[in-house]
Specification:
Blueprint (H helix, E strand, L loop, with lengths): L3 E6 L5 H14 L4 E6 L9 E3 L5 E3 L1 E3 L5 H11 L4 E4 L7 H14 L3 E6 L9 H9 L2 E4 L12 E5 L5 E2 L13 E4 L1 H7 L14
């Protein structure tokens, strides 16, 4: 049965690596796939999904306002397609996530989305919020904070390594721009004093 999957994490958790490996597994078994990524993310070149460990693959692109149901349907009409893989899915619009859900239901094709859950201010991306609401299955790809705990948040830095607390939600960048942290150390990086210890009083 076809499902809409959302694989989420913070930065540098290996989402693209997982996507590329899963797509390879399909093709290794003789099944064609359809890869999509955000058009404006050109870190590896336009229309290319690349991993930090050095593997990559060409992909089609999506952009704001594009009908993804029609795009996937056209791909399926052009030849066999066993699964759709979407990288940088946090950049999807809410309506586009609904289009993916309809493609799963009506075209009966599994769609696997990979993306960030929250931005550098701890807020959900619109695409991620919609996927959290609509996905049939959700899976977390994990990475760690420098303290060893699971990283769930991310900070944005300027060229001098200063933490930025304001700015546009979307800014393309890699290790030079973003650092993944656990919630406690994200709070500290954002200026909160985490040294205080609170003790519950006993009446």
């Amino acid at each position: 049965m076809a499902k809409l999957y959302f694989h989420f994490s913070t930065m540098n958790a290996g989402k693209s690596t997982i996507l590329l490996q899963a797509a390879h597994n399909y093709r290794e078994r003789g099944m064609d796939t359809y890869l999509l990524t955000a058009r404006f993310d050109k870190r590896a070149g336009e229309g290319r999904i690349a991993s930090r460990i050095g593997i990559g693959e060409d992909a089609d692109t999506f952009e704001t306002g594009e009908d993804l149901f029609a795009k996937i349907q056209a791909r399926m009409l052009s030849g066999p397609c066993a699964c759709v893989f979407i990288d940088e899915s946090q950049f999807l619009e809410k309506e586009q996530v609904w289009q993916l859900a309809r493609a799963v239901d009506d075209l009966r094709i599994p769609i696997m989305c990979y993306g960030l859950r929250v931005d550098f201010q701890g807020e959900l991306f619109p695409g991620s919020a919609a996927l959290l609401a609509l996905a049939d299955e959700m899976r977390e790809a994990r990475t760690i904070c420098y303290c060893g705990k699971k990283a769930t948040m991310v900070i944005r830095q300027d060229d001098q390594g200063n933490v930025l607390k304001e700015g546009a939600q979307v800014q393309i960048g890699g290790n030079e721009t973003y650092v993944s942290l656990c919630r406690r150390h994200w709070r500290a990086a954002m200026g909160e004093d985490i040294s205080r210890k609170y003790v519950k009083s006993v009446a």
